[in-house]
Structures are given as structure tokens and as C-alpha cells.
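So, could you explain this one?
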Amino acid sequence: MNERTRDLVDAAPGIIAVATLAIVALTAILGFGSLVPIVAVVGWLLLTPLSAILGEVLVPDETDAQPARQSDPEPARDAATDPVDRLRRRYAAGDIDEEEFERRLDLLLDTEGVDAATARERVRQRDRDADAEREADFEFER
């Protein structure tokens, strides 16, 4: 089932509830006062919950049908702990400039999938190289 169908099934109870409100108002305005409670009960207390229940039973969510994997080789990162997302948020907020963002992003991507000790050594080497480059640029400017 495609996403549009799933969205329509999810929206059906709300659509029916709003349509029931319109039909109740219309029957009251047109003078069918005795039908107002019947339309309200059928719409809100029967059709709305029934559409929600049938939507879940007849059109199951695809994620419910898939069994969970026991061992995921690369666990999904949530946005709160993903270092790249945190870095992007800091850049968007203006906490760091573009140069610092690029430097840190390259560092994160270089060390992704590497154990902590190797990552720390790469960071130290990269910092030493950057310091040497800055020092050479400073000497050249003199």
C-alpha cells in the first residue's frame, strides 16, 4: 500500500467527524430537528470509531507487519544523539562559523565507523597538521 492510501485511512475518522458536524448543522438549519440526534449518534458514535477500527484492521501499517531484526549491524541514530545533526543545529543557530562547521564535519565523517582510540589519534594528527599549516602561513605573512 502506498503512503497516500495510508494517509487517507488515517485521516478518515477526522473527515467523518467533521462531515457529521456539517450534516448535523444542515439538518438543524433545514428544520429536520428530529433527525439531528440520529445523525449525530450515527456519525460520531458509530461511523467515526468504526472507520478508525476498520482502518487499522483492513489496512495494517506496513511497519507493524515487518518483523524486528534481532541484530542490526548499524543501529539507527536518533536526532538527539547524532553528532552530525547536532553539528548542523549548532551551525544553523550561528554557534559556529562555516569554516568550523566544515572542519568538524570532515572530522566526523573521517572517524565514522572507527574505534575511539583510532579516532582520537586521527583528531590529534589533524590538529597537529592544522597547527603546522597555520604556523607556516603566519611565518609566510611576516
About this structure: The first helix runs from residue 3 to 29. The radius of gyration is 30 Å.
